[in-house]
Amino acid sequence: MNVQPILRPACRPRDAAGARAAAWVLSTLLCTAGPAYAEWFYDAHAGGLYDDNLTRAQQAADVRGDGAATLAASGGWFYAPSGTDGTTLSLEANSEAYARFHGLNLISIGGSAGYRHKFGLGRDVPWASIIFSAAHDDFRGDIRDGDRIEARLEVGKRLSDNFDASVGIATDRRFASNDQPVVPGISGKPFDIRGHSVFARAAYDVTERLQVGARVSARRGDVVSTTRQNLDIFLASDAIAADPTFGSDFYAYRLRGTTTAADATLSWALSDRSSLNLSYGVARTAAYDDLNYLSRLGTIVLAFRY
Amino acid sequence: MRTLLALALCALTGHAALAQHEIVAAVVDDKGKPVADAVVVAVPADGGLRLPTRRDAVIDQVDKEFTPKVNAILVGTPVIFPNHDNVRHHVYSFSPAKRFELPLYAGVPAQPVVFDTAGVVVLGCNIHDWMVGYIYVSESPYFAKTRADGKAVIADLPPRNYVVRVWHPQLEGSEAATKRNVDVTGKRRVDVEWTLKLKSELRVRRSPVGEHNGHY
Lengths: 306, 216
Description:
The structure holds 2 protein chains of 2 kinds.
Chain A: H1 17-31, E1 39-51, E2 66-82, E3 85-98, E4 106-118, E5 127-139, E6 146-160, E7 163-176, E8 194-205, E9 210-227, H2 231-236, E10 239-242, E11 251-271, E12 274-288, E13 291-305
Antiparallel strand pairs in A: 1-2, 1-13, 2-3, 3-4, 4-5, 5-6, 6-7, 7-8, 8-9, 9-11, 10-11, 11-12, 12-13
Chain B: H1 2-18, E1 21-29, E2 39-44, E3 57-58, E4 60-62, E5 65-67, E6 70-74, E7 77-80, E8 89-93, E9 100-105, E10 113-115, E11 119-125, E12 132-138, E13 142-145, E14 151-157, E15 161-167, E16 180-183, E17 189-196
Parallel strand pairs in B: 1-17, 3-7, 6-12
Antiparallel strand pairs in B: 1-14, 2-13, 2-15, 4-5, 7-10, 8-9, 8-11, 11-12, 15-16
C-alpha cells in the first residue's frame, strides 16, 4: 500500500478480557438447570438478506452489495422472581453465508442476560429492561473476527390494545482478534470499534396476524468503511487493514462517525409460535465532512419459537 | 270413575308442570360464519329468578393460555384457577364486575375467587401479557355458550317469557342491543338466531418477531 506514514496518537488500548468474562459468565449460568419454574424457550430464525453497501463506501466504484442466507438459533430460560419482574438468559448461534463475498461468511456464538421490570399490574403499564449480550464472531475473512459486547437499556409502554412503543440507549464494543497493520504506527484492527446509540421503536398490530414495526436509531462511534486507497479517508482514520474480502486493493478504515438508521418490519403471524417477517432498513453514516455513505438492508426471516 | 278421571287429570297437570322447555340459539357473524364462544343468556321477563345451588367453576391455565378462554358462570359462583403449566402465573382482573389478583403462583390456589357481581370480567396474566380470558357472570341461571357450530341450547327452562341476549368478547356494539323477547310457553323448543358484528381480536401478540441487526 503506497501511503505516507503519518505520526498519530497511540491506538486506544483494547482488551477482550471483558467480553470473554461476560461470555464465560453467561455460558456458566446457562449450563445450570435454571431456577424452579423457569420457562425454557428455543428460537430459530431462517431467511435471507440483501445489503446494497457491504463495504460502507461512498464512491460508487467501491460499493459492493450482496445477498446472504441466514440461520440463527437460540435457547434459554425466562424466570419471573415476582409478578412484575422477569429475567432471561439465553445462548445464541448465528450464521450468514454470502453469495459472492465469502469472506463475510459468519458463524457467531454468544449469549445474553436480561432483566425486565413492569411498573405495576396490567398489559399497559410502563416497563424497563436492561440486556447485556456478548458474542464471538468468526468470519471466513480473519480481519473481522472478534468478540463483541453490548448493553441496552430500554423503557416502553403499551399505548393501546394494538400499539406498543419504547425508547432506549445502548453501548456497544467490539474487540478485534487480529491485528494486521499495513501502515507503521497505525493500528491494524479497524474492526475494533465502540459506539453509543439511542433508539426508538414501535409496533402496531394492524390485524390479529399482521404487525407493522418501525425502528429509528442514531449511533455515534466507530464505523468501518472499506474502499480502495483513499487519502481523505486515510487521514481521517485511526486503524487500517487490508480487506481482501472485496478485492486485493481494498482497505478497511476505522473512522469516527454518526449513523442514523430507520427500518420497517412487516410481521405475519403464521401461528402462536411462528411468523414470516419482511424488513427494509436504510442507514446513513456521516463519518466526517466529506464522507457520507448510505446502505440499505432488506431481510426476510421465518421465525419459530418453542 | 270420578276417581280415575281425577287421577288422570292430576297426572296430566303434573306432567305439564314438569315439562321443560329449551331455547336453541344460533349465532353467526355478518358473513354468515358460525360464532363460537358467544354467551346466550335468558332472563325471565317477569324478573322472577330462583337461583340454583352454586357449584364451583374451574378456569385452567394450560400452555400459557386460559382454558376455556370464555366462561359463563352464575353470579356468586366460586371459581378456582388451577395452574397446570410448569411456570408460574400472576392472574388479575381490573374489571368493575370483579377486581382481584392472584399473586405469582404455581399449582392450585388455596382459595377460590367468588364472582358476586354480574358483568364481564377480563382476565390477564402479568407475566404473559398475551394471556387473556373472559368470565361472563350471569344474573340468570339460564345461559349457555355457543359451540364451534355457533349453536347453544339453554335447556330446562320453565315455560315463561324471557328476554334473551347475546355477548361475545369481540362484540361490536352493546350487549343490550341483542335483546330479544322469547316466549317459550307454547312450544317445547324455540329457535332464535342472531347475526353479530364482531371486532378484530387485538390481544398482545404471542408469536415471535424475526429481526436482523444490521452491521455498522
